[in-house]
Amino acid sequence: MKTKYFIITLLGLSVSFLFPSCEETLTENPASYYKKENFFVSSSNAEIAILGIYDVLAKIEHYGQYEMAMPSSDDTYYIQGTSTDNTRRDISHYTLTPANQWLEQIWQYKYKGIDRANFAINGIESMSEYKNGDQKLVGLLAEAKFLRALLAFDLVKYWGDVPFKTTYSNSYDDAYQPKVDREIIYDQIIEDLNFAKENLPWATASSSPERATQGAARGLLMRVLLQRAGYSLKMDGNLTRPSDEKRNEYFNAVIDEWNEFQNNGYHNFYDNGYVELFKGFSWGVLNSKESLFEIAFYSADGSKEDSGNWGTYNGPLVDAPLISASETMNYMGRANAFFRVVPEWKGFFEDNDVRRDVMVCSYKYTWDATTYSHKKVENKNGKDWYPGKWRREWMPLGYKDPNNTDVNFCYLRYADVVLMAAEAFNEVGQTPIAWELLNNVRRRAGATPITAENYSSLMKSPKVYDLPYISDADEAGKFRTALYWERAFELAFEGQRKYDLIRWGILKEALAFFNNNTSVKIYYPAGVNFIKGKHELFPIPLDEMQINSKLGTNNPGW
Amino acid sequence: MKNYKKIFLLTALLLMVSSKIFPQKLTVRGKVTDNEGLEVIGANVIIKNSQGKGTITDHEGNYVLSVENAAKDVLVFSYVGMKTQEIPVKGRTRIDVVMEPDIQLLSEVVAVGYGTSRRRDLTGSVSSVKGEDLLKVPTSDILQGLAGRVAGVYISQTEGAPGASISIRVRGGISITQSNEPLYIIDGVPSEEGLSSLDPSQIESIDILKDASSTAIYGARGANGVVLVTTKSGLKDERKLTVTVDAYVGMKKLAKKLPVLSVKEFLLLDYERRMGANPQNGAANFAEIYGPFNEIDINYKDRPGIDWQEETLGRNAVTQNYRIALNGGNKDTQYNFSYWYFKDQGAMVYSGNNKNNITFNIKHKPSNRLTFSARMNYDESKVYGTGTSENGDRFNKLQHILQYRPTGGIKISEDVLLKGEDPLLLDESGNVMQNPLISASEETNNREYRTLQINGGLTYNLIKNLSFQNNTGMRYKIYRNEIFYGDQSIIAKRSSINGKISNTDYGNISTSNTLTYNYKKKKHRFTSMIGQEYVYNWNRYLEASASNFPNDDIGLNDLSLGATPGIPRSYVNFDDKLLSFFARVNYNYEEKYILSASVRADGSSKFGEKNKWGIFPSISGAWRMSEEKFIKNLNIFSDLKLKGGYGLAGNNRISNYLSLPILGSVTYPQGTTTKSGYASTQIPNPFLKWEANKTFNLGLDIGLLKQRLIIIPEFYNNRSSSLLLNSRIPKSSGFSNMMRNIGETENKGFDLTINSINFNKKNFEWTTSFNISHNKNKIRKLAGEDYFLEEASFGYSQKTHLIKVGEPLGLFYGFVTEGIYTVDDFNYDPNTKTYTLKDGIAYYGNKNQVKPGNWKFKNIDDSNDIIDENDKTIIGEADPKLYGGITNDFRYKNFDMSIFFSFNYGNDIFNATKLTNSLGGRTNKNALNVINSSKRWMTINQNGEIVTDPDELTTINENKSVAAWYDLEDGDKYIHSWAVEDGSYIRLSNLSIGYTLPKKISKKLSINKLRFYATGNNLYVWTKYTGYDPEVSTRGIGITRGVDFGAYPKSRSVVFGMNLTF
Fold first, then answer.
1. Quick one: average pLDDT of A400-420?
2. Per-residue pLDDT at A418 exceeds 70
3. Predicted confidence (pLDDT) per residue in B278-327, tens digit
4. CB-based contact, A39 to chain B, within 8 Å
5. What CA–CA distances, in Å, run from A392 to A296, A335, A385, B655, B943?
6. Pairing label, strands B908-911, B1043-1044
């Protein structure tokens, strides 16, 4: 008996002291996660790292919703409601504080994407297959660089000089970075886009605009160059732009890119016209011809993870259908319509211009309990007119969520490329080519091409306003005036307008002027609240200023 | 028979002879031991009526004493804390005495971690609670019964819902962002899930180790205190089977309702806001729904309206509890089996908690040197119901209950409103509010817990004084959560009928081995222990969901009915390991001086590669002054002990893999599908390690009046460092947080426990236990910054808490309310009938939009007239200055009574329920009565006309304290001190009355004991707090503690039961 117990005890002792005694026991080997150091081993892994960067774009807190508020208000639209909310309204009405919560999120998502891009770039560049010239890896690297450029460009537009690095954050010390002059960041953006355009294939009829192509890289490069050539608010509080010599260089570079588009010849206006183009965005049609790059949204069950709010948050109002829960696939979902268009725009269009009824939607859908269906109701009051480029009524019937939709955001399309080229041609003195390009855009939309004869009737009051802040004394000025209207007609709400006005140095003037002339004055206070030399840039979020002492002072006026 | 007689006669004869013939001297020897067989050193042995003639026992408990009359003399054995015994010598030369403890506390044995100790030998801070005290509270979670009973341990329930989480903080809790839960050890085996799977009746005692000199033996897990639970084993002395039946049935009822606007007040508010929003048609719109303004009194005089709180939360909920326990055994084998069924309805409709529990304990002693024990416990618990506090926004259920309108107006009767959806809300685009009775029945939220725990151990005495002990246990737990939105639920109407099942499995294996050596020589007593422990935890998760169910008949029972499957999710985590070695020595000299030291080395898989191992030492000592002559001579103290200790313990409650550079999965859509991506989820920190808590403890054990009065004051100073802060780093790094060991906090305070036996007579006993604690928390260091702000989310998108160096945790942050703007603050323009704020008067937002009746905030930053971020300040503090409890137990003949009060003093509550339910600007919604027309700034007069004239406006708004409807709109979301309230309270927590059948009667019925009892719980709360209950924290118990948003109200309950043993 005794020996038995003794043996048990000894056994217990020896097992307990020997079996878990090595250091290996305490090493973690995560089974549900990849470890960074052994990730870049195959091109399929490299590809999922690239998808990790794209993921950042397709978030409610980014291009899915929050990003919608960032380029508003301009002279075309604003967010309804004027009481303070510390989020979207304050941004739109220029009453935001550095503690604005959406601003904080946007800031975070830009950098999250840049860090993921830095990680992927570093990883791919260290792969031996890449060094041996594996074409797939080169293409993936080009995508990563395109995305880094896209996000860095957003940063520079919104905040000017910001922390920026091309290595990924791997330690505590990496996290603290000082501001970098925006010109240096621009250099890097252009370098990245040059790499991207040289190593990405041109789109074809079978390619998807949801992944970057050569056209996307070239188009974005044009956008970057134009922005860089224009005004921006500097840390000294002045709105300045580069020397004429530099600007000329940038405009010529834009023209070079345009020529590449011409040489390739694939990208063009959408085959079925302007209206169908936008209906197609809501319907979920992917076209790679006019769409150079789209930020993709799709979720099988309407969950927030991969959905956006295009067509609900930004779109005409639709009442929630009062139906049974099992009928949701047979009715149009609701849209809560947070944006409003400045209603005067409806009158600026020619009657034959099909873009008018896409841009301005003057009706809403209410629920009619008696017919058990939605009913289209005209809004008499211009304060209830909505931006109409994305709509519930154009989406496939049924809904998965009251807010979340599968509608993609088209980040860059061919019409913009044409107008950018036109602008560059005009600025380097080739105004006739510029007119021709601009009129191509108008022709597609059914609008009358602008000529010396009809200029006054189309681009002056009473058809539109006489702009006090753009001189049309000479031919270039006339073109600039026409471009002012044309870019709004064509591209309103697509994220470009506010930054067009900033680079042209007239955002304050345009806001104030439209505020004075509109019937929705009290709902649209941007022109009153905007302070020149301050609101051209957002403040760096309060949180960030507190944490990172290397940032120094905030942007001018904040 | 014959023989017996003979013997009897002989004996009688001998006795007679001896008493007469041998009255002589005799030397008596013997040994005095206590009930555990330990020798009692220094016990008094005197001869009765001999003027103190006697001796004391030596170091081995032996005595030698000469008696004058061996036949008649009586020896008196006495020792502090032991029952005095009188034993006649009767001619014997050897008399060994086993002394029984007199007062429980002094010789009580307490668990101290890998062993036990006599309370009198303790050098650290340990509080103990007996199992029977915990049973008084009719609950399924023991911790609830523990609240208010232990000095230095702050226990509070986050809300009143079935299965609501319970926060427990020992001496303040060290951590800023990590869990402050103590470590739970059940019969030597660690339990990650606390005590919820234990049957309260199976608990023998709970010992709580509070200072690091006691907890350092638990190393990296001991920093927040250790709760040691000892479960009951069988009965030693009774061979026959004992059966105990405990059954009670009780009723529960909402303890308090929040006053909402009466029908008339609701109509007045609705009229006012309609008029304000639309001066032309407001009156007509109102009349269409509710009838003309001037007919309100006539139309509604017989319509008291719907009390939605009564409808949803007001039911008489039934609690049932049945328990049967069998135990028995002999001196070698003891066993204990119990089955427990508990069924508790929640106050809210469709909510409750069901529980089944089986426990089996066995202890066997096959030889004198070996003891083996095993315990099995299977627990099944289901908590169901949606509750009221989920959803930190407009989906919140309590908001729906409080804001659903009380009357349907002239076209809809209250009865119709009660049974269906409010048509006014249906017309409202984006409305998410629905009839709370419908949403409660249509939304399923089941939480099921199944826990199987088996553990066993053996103790083997290798050689004299050296014993080996092993404790090994395994636990398997499944947590399943089912969420389903039925056909009529608002969620389903907004998207589709959908549901989700998530399953988490947890497993645990732990084993500990110790060698204990006891050594004793003369005045020296020495105990040493070395040990080793290995703990392994794993868990894995699986989630499946689907939407677009055609109907809700089968629902989650067949997920494939959902036409659209959701993305399934899963993870596994097989990496949580802890490997430890430890040692402890105790040294006791002459029962006067006690020294204890321990050290533990813990290696944890969670820590960074550069900090895998931590060393946790402690040292403590005690001086039993009552053993000193000069104290004994005072004749005051029956016990006096000074104890002090210093130690280091850690907190390793962090997630796995935080130190590693890892990538997590993400998705990006491609066409009508989504593709997987991978992205970095954190910045690696190879230096990551445990949180450290260095504590200094100083205490006294004072026993007076032969231990009838015991006072235990203790002081502590805890300094925590290397706190794991998910510290904010610049977001420009691509990350917003990083786990770093950077924070420092300090907790200083005192605990005081007083136990007294007021009466101890045959027919009347009265004892009192009182405890009070104070803790002062201070943040000493954060991650580089001086402060940061945090949001307790309830839909306001505003920061609510300030975390600042030099200040305690739990500070509310916002504007200071200075009442409301009155007419005097404005210039009035009679032509345009507009008010313009006078220059020099501070305002928030747009100056032109400020109106009389707006909230007015204190302009703290005097540099300008604008109220902005700079004018926010500390507006309240969540932690109490003092807390504790007092219990009085009485017994009179066969009646017993226990009355228990708990209290909290000096804490504030951020009443977000008040803030979010007083938004009078919300059309068609009711609001709390705090904004009724006698308190709210009014913009209409008695005739229903809008008032703009300054004099009239002033007259109708004299002594108003709450802003006008237009400042209570959805958009205006300020955090201000109006919502901060004093949370001090005294609660009559528990009152029990029992009657035990007299022995005479029960014997006739051949039962051991039969007791009938009635217990009332949460019977009354004395407080100024206007919310449901001041014991609340629904938006987190860490940084954002102290917020009451949508808290499920507490109930008052009474149960009647009986306790039968036969």
1. 95
2. yes
3. 888 889 999 999 999 999 998 998 889 999 999 999 999 999 999 999 98
4. yes
5. 17, 7, 15, 43, 46
6. parallel
Cβ neighbours of residue B583 under 8 Å, at least 6 residues apart? B528, B529, B530, B531, B598, B599, B600
CB atoms < 10 A from the CB of B2, how many? 6
DSSP string over B789-854 = EE---SS--S--EEEETTS-S-EEEEBPEEEE--GGGEEEETTTTEEEEPTT--EES-GGG--TTS
d(CA A213, CA A199): 9
Are B1015 and B1058 a contacting pair, CB within 8 Å? no
Q: What is the dihedral of CA B271, B276, B278, B280, to 10 degrees?
A: 80
Instruction: Tell me, letter by letter, the H, E, C secondary structure of A332-369.
Output: CCCECCCEEECCCHHHHCCCCCCCHHHHEECEEEEEEC
Residue A324 is nearest to which of B462, B487, B685, comparing CB atoms?
Answer: B487
- Matching residue, tokens 């202890």: B363
Cβ within 8 Å, pair A172-B683: yes
Mean pLDDT of A279-306: 93
Q: Is the pLDDT of residue A148 over 50?
A: yes
Tell me whether residues A16 and B532 touch, CB distance under 8 A.
Answer: yes
The B residues from 473 to 502 touching A (CB cutoff 8 Å) are 485-489, 492-498
Tell me how far apart the alpha carbons of residues A108 and B988 are, in angstroms, rounded to a whole number.
Answer: 50
Residue type, A347: G
**Contact: A298, B570; criterion CB under 8 Å:** no
Of B566, B571, B573, the CB nearest to A303: B566
Contact assignment for A29 to B575 by CB distance below 8 Å = yes
CA distance A126 to A168: 14
CA distance A483 to chain B (A): 34
Distance CA A336, CA A311 (A): 9
For residue B373, give the 3-state DSSP assignment: strand
- In the predicted model, residues of chain B with pLDDT beneath 50 are 1-2, 10, 13-14, 16-21, 105
ipTM score of complex: 0.91
Cβ atoms of B645 and B125 within 8 Å: the answer is: yes
User: Which residue's entry shows tokens 């993305």?
Assistant: B567
For B234, how many CA atoms within 13 A lie in the half-sphere containing its CB?
A: 29
pLDDT at A546: 86
DSSP A289: T
Distance from CA of B130 to the nearest CA of A (A): 33
Of B316, B389, B166, which Cα lies nearest the Cα of B1051?
A: B316
Both tokens of residue B889? 């137990």
Contact (Cβ atoms closer than 8 angstroms) between residue B124 and residue B116: no
Q: What pLDDT is attached to residue A516?
A: 93
pTM for this entry:
0.84
Written as one string, the DSSP assignment of B686-745 is TT---EEEEEEEEEEEEEETTTTEEEEEEEEEEEEEEEEEEEE--GGGT-SEEEEEEEEE
